[in-house]
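Re: your question from the hallway

Yes, I did run it. Sequences:
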Amino acid sequence: MKDYLLIMISAIFINNVIFARFLGLCPYLGVSKKFSTAWGMGMAVTFVMTVSTAITFPLNRYILLPFHIEYMRTVMFILVIASLVQIVEIVLKKTSPSLHRSLGIYLPLITTNCAILGMALLAIKGEYSFFEAVFFAFSSALGFTLAILIFSGIRERLDFANVPENFKNVPIALITAALLAMSFMGFAGLVK
Amino acid sequence: MWKEFKKGIIKENPVLSALLGLCPTLAVTTTVKNGIGMGLATIFVLIGSNAVISLLARHIPSKVRIPSYIVIIATFVTIVDLLVQAFSPELNKSLGIFIPLIVVNCIVLGRAEAFAGRNRFLPSIMDALGMGLGFTLALFLLSSIREILGNGTFLGFHVLGNIPPILVFILPPGAFISLGFIIAAVSFLSAKRRNG
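Structure:
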């Protein structure tokens, strides 16, 4: 139980996907202008990241490693993730149209979200057991959601701020992200 | 031909004006060496994928073109990954998972879809070279700033003398701040140019 708690705290606060690992920055900057879209993106990422790690992790352990074809990893993982996103979209459309409406537009974007592939690769490198790996991916996705929610809250207020002409939009967003990253560095001492 | 090459370097720079490929840009630019290494790896993938895609585009049905492009790109990424592992284990260690992650670098898929898929072989290669160099230039700029300010060195040589380095610049927040200021400077310069 202690292990799981450590994985969770470290993935959310200390090694946050955005602020420490630099994964998934495109959606982080792209869909964080409004709180509600940020929430949708966070949910979609959480769902896909957890499921994709749950599939890629056993694939690596029971197919790639026994047959010594580790060099196929990149090709295989990206195909699994791309088709998974497609399947999730089709299933959601049939079974839960309301959820599809709220997540739908974010799903295609997720295929090129490097956080998903990155997390699948990191879960393998980390020498986790299956459940730990899935839990690690889930916690990291929560970290992503936390980061994008805080960021979108700030950006909604930035709209009313008096920002120098050349810093409008992206530059000020990046500097805001820098300040957030600094505050997240304060967590660094929590877990050794 | 020259036009295709030139546009990616300044005018349509993938990082500074289109904001693509931000993850590797921010993550690997702690030292100039890493930045250039990442840039070269991406140039190789871009040229390879643009070349193959421009040759095959007419034979790929348009409905499955994105997955096909991704497989072609992933193949070249695997080649680069293996080459870097074999010839520069040090670089492989410092770039880490960001080499396999070139697959999901929006620049590569973006060029395949926007240019290589509808142009001929030679222009596609020039386009890849230009965009790759533009990407490398952006990485070089960002990593120079971060290495000089954050570590007091440039390509490993001490340049700041007795001035103490500002550690935060090689830490994650420094990456965001530096890129924010670079993009603000680019927007200032292009506004100035427009107004004469």
